[in-house]
Structure formats: structure tokens, C-alpha cells
Amino acid sequence: MHKAFETGHNGVVVSDHEIPDIEESPEAATPQDVLRWAVDRYGERLTLSVSFGGPEGMVLLDMLSRITDRVPAFTLDTGFLFEETVAFREEIMERYRVPLNVLTPGLSLEEQVERYGPELWSCKPDICCEVRKVEPQKRYLRDYDAWVTGIRRDQTPQRADTPVLGQDDFFGVAKIAPLAGWSADDVEAYVHEYDVPLNPLLSMGYRSIGCEPCTRPVAPGEDPRAGRWADSDKTECGIHIAGGRVRRADT
What we know:
about 30% helix; globular
């Protein structure tokens, strides 16, 4: 361990905690220690993704805000978000001191309809996700060296092997998942302990919240992500699949 400077070597305030050297054993580190290490290592070349849908991003936003106010967060506004999600985002960023970048697609909804036809999300959802999520994030991450994400291994089979510290070759950045080893109960416990605000849709039967046309509430006992792209075999938007395995779109 080494003692963090009041202002870290990247010019970022990281707190007066000791920062562990976690690279050799990241699985043994707490999410807070992973974040402190990442802030100290990457400084303002680090960024956190927050969807303002699930609790994981909110937990990391809360943790990061207790460490620094210089590392930015980002969120994707696809143009199809629930009104509740947008209102929650605006309300919540008055509480947290972390700067937020709201990313929008290169194509407006009208331009997308003109190019691909109406309701692309229903007939070609992979291309819709590519245009409205993957491409904006790829453009944004060109200016960063590391990306913090709230994904957990037990969310989907595709995420089961998620490392705490990894490299995302598609986006060209280090990919850091401090909550990879946490369970839903761990996340809930942090939410209650620190009074972390959550999207109101989570109390209305939604367990995993994405774009409104592609998200429905889930029944008791149903898989939390069963409401995403229901009645199809699609399980990921393409952001968290190795190599960004979604159909390419000309944007």
C-alpha cells in the first residue's frame, strides 16, 4: 500500500485513504479500493458509466463521489429512455458532485427512421443498439484510458467471466468492474446503508431498465433481465460483449 496524496499524481483528489496495489490480487480488493486504485492510476483519463436504470451504477456513482469530484461519469441517452429515467437522472445529478457527460447518437431519431425505417428496435434490435449505444460510447471513450462499469458476473451467463480488471479491445480502454464479484444482495445492502437513490421504475416491477420500447416489468420469480428484449433471444446491447459482437451499422 501507499499513502494517497491529497491531490493524486494525476491532479485528482483521491482522499486520505491508503491506496492498495491491487493489480496482483484484484479479487481480494473491495470495490472502494478498486475505485481508489483506478482514480490514482488513471486520474481524469478514467470515466464511469451510469445508466440511471439499475442500482449498480448508482452504487458506483455514490462510491466515486466519496473519492473524487474530478473523474467524470457518462450516460447514454438513446432518445428512447423512459421519462422517469430522464427525470431521475436530472434530479440525481444535483445530489452528486461528479461531472456527467450525456452521450447522444450520431443519428437523430428522424434520421434513423429515414435511413433504416420505423421501429428499428423491433425488427433489427442489434443495429438499433449499435447506432444508439455502441457507436456513441466508442466515440466518447477515444478520449479515455479506462472505463468503470457496474456489471456483475451473476447477471447473465455472458458476464460470468467478467474480470475486475480487464482490457476491452473493442473500445480500446482498460475495463474495470469493481462490483464483478458482488451479488444483488451485496448491492442492495450498500443501497440501504448509504441511502442511495434508485430509479422509481425499480419499485414498479422493472428489474432491469433500458429503452422503453424494449423493456417490460417482470413477474415475481422471473429472471430480472427477462424484461429486456422480451420474446427474442437478444440478451445484450453489445456494449459488454467481447469484441462488441453486434451487427455493424453505417453511421
